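HOLO CASE FILE
Compound: coenzyme A
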Amino acid sequence: MKVELRVLKKEDIHILQALLVRCSDYLIFQDEEPLKSTAADDLFGSRPEGVEVKDKFLLGIFVDGQEELVGVFELVQGFAGPKTLSLALMVLEIFSRGQGIGSKAYEALEEWAIGHHFNKVRLGVLFGNVKGLKFWKCMGYSETGEVKPHLSNKFMVLEKTLGVPSELALGKQTLLQRSVNIG
Ligand SMILES: CC(C)(COP(=O)(O)OP(=O)(O)OC[C@H]1O[C@@H](n2cnc3c(N)ncnc32)[C@H](O)[C@@H]1OP(=O)(O)O)[C@@H](O)C(=O)NCCC(=O)NCCS
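Model generated. Tokens follow.
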């Protein structure tokens, strides 16, 4: 199985909206409301206060050259520190979970992050997301001890310090940069 990441653009809005519908179990849990018909548009447009448009982007997760998305990453650069990448959202459609796609997609993201000189990735896991927390711990993340409010819930902050890339990772990164082109 080949997992690829690609920067999503406005013209991908229809495949993104269709994906979000297939992820609605998780998005309803996160947002505490039904999925909106404008969900994809909102995901493109939303960003933390003070973050410029160029520093927020969406990476689509594709499998085996198919045109439909199986998942998406929402990323913000520079918000939590100049070399820290903030992972605001990672979600896979329900039918693609539990097959190793998430871990492969995450590995590709980490290679990209190392290649772009980020030394840390930071993310939040909502209380009650037991599978999500287990996934991130398996990916090498640790709780920082910070707990922040989110609607009626709370999330814990997790971080991972990224290593120096090995020769092998550098080789893979060059290949990755051909398909993942972010400023
Ligand atoms: C969290 C999430 C991104 C993980 O992605 P994923 O593709 O399901 O993760 P993986 O398949 O790599 O690993 C999950 C499980 O599948 C198992 N698995 C991996 N490859 C497998 C394979 N080929 N066949 C069967 N199971 C496999 C893993 O061992 C793991 O099992 P475990 O939970 O019992 O340890 C995904 O489940 C998801 O989108 N969940 C909803 C949204 C969410 O919670 N996002 C995170 C917010 S913080």
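CASE NOTES: The pocket of coenzyme A is lined by residues 26, 90-92, 97-103, 125, 129, 131-132, 134-135 (CB under 6 Å). The helical segments are 13-22, 24-31, 39-45, 101-115, 130-138, 167-179.
CLOSED: yes
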